[in-house]
Amino acid sequence: MMRILLTCLLLLISAHAGAIVTDNTTVPHFDDPAVRARYQALTEQLRCVICLNQTIASSTAPLALDMRIMVAEKIRAGYSDEQIKAILVDRYGTFVLYKPPFSMATWALWLGPVALLACGLLIALVVLRRRRRVSVEPVHLDHERLAQVLAEQDAEEHQQ
């Protein structure tokens, strides 16, 4: 029993020791506030390919740090935002963009939610129409049957 507890403790310690933590505050220095704002805006538009749904600006992954450094170098070299995005898309695919462009590869991403909404509305419409038919017909039949039963009772009472 003691060996199992010791093994579990060692596994927990080794898992913690293997975690990689980078300094997320490592932001390249820009003298011009406009360039710094451009850098921050661009890094907020790019997705870390390791950390799902995190920008490279907020990710602590080593790859995100490398991507931030590369973006800063390209900005200093005079590249436009579109050129920098194109370089990253060539390297990592359109997944690196938070707002990928509409193309044959991303049509399902853009049109999928609309198609699902249309299917849901169609199903809801069909179900509502069926409920109306089902709920109206029995009520109508019940009224007819009730009138018939009451008429029969009246007829029996008058005969007696």
Describe the protein.
The termini are far apart. The radius of gyration is 33 Å and the shape is elongated. It is an all-alpha fold and 160 residues long. It has 2 domains: 13-101, Helicase, Ruva Protein, domain 3 (Orthogonal Bundle); 103-160. The protein contains 5 helices and no strands. The chain has helices at residues 2-17, 33-45, 62-76, 81-92, 107-159. α2 (33-45) packs across α3 (62-76). The model is unreliable at 16-25 (pLDDT under 50).
Give a quick precis of the structure.
The chain has 160 residues and is mostly helical. It has helices at 2-17, 33-45, 62-76, 81-92, 107-159. The protein is elongated.
Helical percent range? Answer: 55-70%
Give the end-to-end Cα distance, rounded to a whole number of Å.
92 Å
What's the shape?
Answer: elongated
User: What's the CATH first level of the largest domain?
Assistant: Mainly Alpha
Helix tally equals: 5
What proportion strand?
A: under 5%
